[in-house]
Specification:
Layout lengths: L1 H22 L7 E11 L6 E4 L10 H10 L5 E5 L4 E5 L9 E14 L11 E5 L1 E3 L5 E7 H10 L7 E6 L10 E7 L10 E3 L4 E6 L3 H5 L4 E12 L4 E6 L1 H10 L7 E6 L4 E6 L3 H4 L4 E14 L3 E5 L3 E6 L8 E4 L9 E3 L6 E6 L8 E4 L5 E10 L4 E2 L4 E9 L4 E4 L3 E2 L21 E8 L9 E2 L3 E9 L5 E11 L6 E5 L15 E4 L3 E9 L2 E2 L4 E12 L5 E4 L2 E3 L7 E3 L3 E3 L2 E3 L4 H7 L2 E13 L3 E3 L2 E2 L5 E2 L12 H50 L4 H5 L13
Parallel strand pairs: 1-6, 30-43, 40-43
Antiparallel strand pairs: 1-5, 2-4, 3-4, 3-5, 6-12, 7-11, 8-10, 9-10, 9-12, 13-17, 13-44, 14-16, 15-16, 15-17, 18-19, 19-22, 20-21, 20-24, 23-24, 24-26, 25-36, 26-27, 26-28, 29-31, 31-35, 32-33, 32-37, 34-35, 37-43, 38-39, 41-42, 45-46
């Protein structure tokens, strides 16, 4: 009887699974996975344990969880918790925003029905809610569902569809019947990291894992960014007893997913190797975790950079693939005219650096075989004013040998790292008056930032608190500047419209019973000359309601044309900015009041290094000299040379001290003897001076002197 009951439930499970597949009208070979980043179902959806390793170690379990859910027809989706290496599955489809919550330590895999016969990836698409790729509109398709948008990307034949943007037209939710505007693109966030930014949750970013370029164009990503003393928090595969080179090879040969980078953790005689399908562009720099025994290497696209060297100059030339209006400059010398060059569209940018005088941060090092390296660190900044996460740090230089010159290019990196800052918070002690304040929050933790780093997702919030709701606000003329206003960039113009949506988006309004918030999500940036970023904005008040402004390109912001305004001072008490609105004065003349607000934070770069140096003809030259392969090791030689020089200086110093001591001792003994003889002769009434000028004859043969 018991056996019959068991077989009955097994049969019911099979029937339910087949019914679900038939309901979706999806063949077995068309069932794939979609990976959702930064979002997961809440525990109210009753998660069930899918897989947990036998050991307590936090090892990657992505492939195991995918296999178990694929074989379980009831499994509609599952969530991996990377920090504890465990995954849970869900029997029912998850719908509605109330069923979801933010979590950057997880990945949510959902079963979907797509026709992708030539793709063997474990998941077909990666979806990032609340993100978008600016300026990548290759083909627009209105009023499609998510699945239709993804299938259109897979079916596209006119160009290689690498990614898609999905603008939801209705309430947010992961169900397939939600429709929106689908925009296909021939680029993705890895090719153009500067165009990838945070957005509202009506926007979603899809990335096609089956793109032809991902699988065929090996030259698209030709270098790695290296993070010292760090590893990536999300890992998908793990290999023991590897070398750095073998781990890199495993990453490049992986076919089941697109390997975006790898981490190596040093053990006694080998390395542990971790492969990653994600990178720091998804969740920002927080995904890179400190590990003093590890190094993280992240794939980066190639740059069309060439280097030529003469006896007096090193010339770096960059030919952009698309419009480039940024700057090329040597790190720490962004304002020196000889050390930077500006972009002019698609024209080649040339930076001519003098090397004889060793200006612009160029350093000199000599190898044991008399080769000389002249090298420095260059920054390729895509925005003309501010430095963002997509900018690149490039080591450039020339090696001069005995008989020939060797040209040296770079492996490429990004920037970032946090610091402490005391922000200015606007508050008031007068409960009767409305309160207006500006602050910057971490987009994930929703905590006010006291420090941040380039690329971190932040929220700028202007909040207006009042009791009766009779006033409304809008903001314009938002300016970011350095501490002393040496450099500045206008983020929102006088109407409140964004000047560069890649750097800062339009403000959106969130109204509640007791407050009004103007919110904008952006990624932290900094100026090349200073880590201090000071935000200054003009806030204006309207009676009852401030209508939004049409900024063009389907962008609306909560601003309007300025009128004659009455300005009130912003008082400072003990370093804290206090701003109050006097409603009686406002209602008396019914004019719009204008108030300035400020917020200061510090944004810094991380300790990121380029993994390798590249010869001018395209060959890679690893930092480290191998005499057998004739590769230059400058860092090691310089270190040994410094040690030898220090030892020689110590030997010379000690030798000189010994010689001086001996000479002084001899001189002292001579002086002591001379003084003793003089004293003795004085006792007999004669001195050395009397003896020198006299002749003395001794008695001989009876003669007397």
């Amino acid at each position: 009887m018991t056996l019959r009951i068991i077989w009955f439930f097994i049969l019911i499970d099979v029937i339910i699974g087949e019914f679900q597949d038939a309901r979706k009208n999806c063949g077995k070979n068309d069932i794939h996975f979609e990976k959702v980043l930064g979002l997961k179902p809440s525990d109210r959806n009753v998660p069930l344990l899918l897989y947990k390793p036998d050991t307590n170690a936090t090892t990657p379990i992505t492939t195991q969880c995918l296999e178990k859910c694929q074989s379980n027809k009831e499994c509609q989706s599952f969530v991996i918790y990377f920090n504890i290496s465990i995954c849970y599955w869900f029997r029912n489809a998850i719908t509605g925003t109330e069923e979801l919550e933010l979590d950057s330590d997880t990945a949510w895999f959902i079963k979907i029905c797509l026709k992708a016969p030539n793709c063997e990836k474990l998941w077909i698409f990666e979806r990032v809610p609340g993100a978008t790729l600016v300026g990548s509109e290759t083909k627009a398709l209105p009023s499609l569902t998510r699945l239709e948008c993804q299938q259109s990307c897979l079916n596209e034949r006119q160009f290689d569809c690498k990614s898609a943007k999905f603008k939801i037209n209705s309430n947010y939710g992961p169900s397939d019947d939600i429709k929106g505007t689908c925009i296909l693109s021939n680029i993705d966030r890895h090719v153009m990291p500067a165009a990838y930014r945070a957005s509202t949750y009506d926007d979603e970013y899809f990335e096609n894992q089956c793109s032809k370029a991902e699988n065929e164009d090996e030259d698209e990503f030709c270098t790695y960014e290296e993070y010292d003393n760090a590893t990536l928090g999300h890992s998908d595969l793990f290999f023991q007893n590897q070398t750095k080179d073998s781990c890199k090879s495993l990453c490049e040969k992986t076919q089941i997913f697109n390997c975006r980078g790898y981490s190596v953790v040093e053990r006694k005689r080998s390395f542990d190797c971790y492969l990653h399908s994600e990178d720091s562009k998804v969740h920002g720099p927080r995904l890179v975790q400190n590990n003093f025994q590890g190094r993280y290497f992240e794939k980066a696209p190639c740059l069309n950079i060439s280097i030529t060297c003469s006896e007096t100059y090193m010339t770096v030339e960059y030919t952009p693939d698309m419009n480039f209006l940024g700057r090329m400059y040597m790190e720490g010398y962004s304002e020196n005219l000889e050390c930077f060059a500006k972009g002019h569209g698609t024209e080649t940018v040339a930076l001519k650096l003098p090397i004889i005088s060793e200006q612009c941060g160029i350093i000199k090092a000599i190898a044991p075989d008399n080769r000389t390296l002249l090298a420095g660190t260059m920054i390729l900044q895509f925005n003309p004013l501010v430095q963002t996460q997509g900018d690149r740090i490039i080591r450039v230089g020339c090696i001069y040998g005995n008989d020939s010159k060797v040209l040296l290019g770079t492996g490429i990196t990004i920037t970032t790292a946090p610091s402490h800052v005391s922000p200015l918070i606007n508050s008031t002690a007068l409960a009767a008056s409305p309160v207006i304040e500006m602050l910057v929050l971490d987009a994930e933790t929703q905590k006010e930032v006291s420090s941040t780093q380039i690329g971190q997702e932040l929220e700028l919030i202007i909040e207006f608190k009042q009791a009766d709701g009779s006033l409304d606000i809008w903001a314009g003329h938002l300016v970011a500047m350095t501490e002393h206003n040496d450099e500045s960039i206008i983020l929102l113009d006088d109407r409140g419209c964004p000047t560069n949506i890649n750097i800062f988006p339009a403000l959106t309004k969130i109204a509640t019973n007791d407050s009004i918030k103007l919110v904008a999500k952006f990624q932290a940036f900094k100026f090349s000359s200073s880590p201090i970023v000071r935000f200054s904005v003009i806030v204006q008040f309207c009676p009852e309601n401030c209508p939004p402004v049409d900024c063009g390109n389907n962008v609306q912001s909560f601003g309007r044309k300025q009128r004659e305004v009455q300005t009130r001072a912003v008082h400072t008490i003990d370093g804290t900015k206090v701003t109050n609105v006097n409603r009686s004065e406002f209602e008396k003349d019914r004019t719009v009041m204008k108030m300035p607000l400020e917020f200061i934070m510090i944004v810094r770069n991380p300790g990121v290094n380029s993994e390798r140096l590249v010869l001018g003809d395209g060959k890679i030259l690893v930092a480290g000299y191998d005499f057998i392969s004739n590769e230059v090791c400058l860092d090691y030689s310089l270190f040994i040379g410094l040690i030898i020089t220090w030892v020689l200086i110590q030997i010379i110093f000690i030798t000189c001290c010994i010689i001086l001591v001996r000479r002084y001792k001899k001189y002292y003994e001579h002086e002591s003897l001379t003084q003793s003889l003089e004293q003795l002769n004085k006792n007999f009434g004669i001195g050395f001076s009397n003896l020198d000028g006299r002749r003395v004859h001794w008695a001989d043969n009876g003669d007397y002197t």
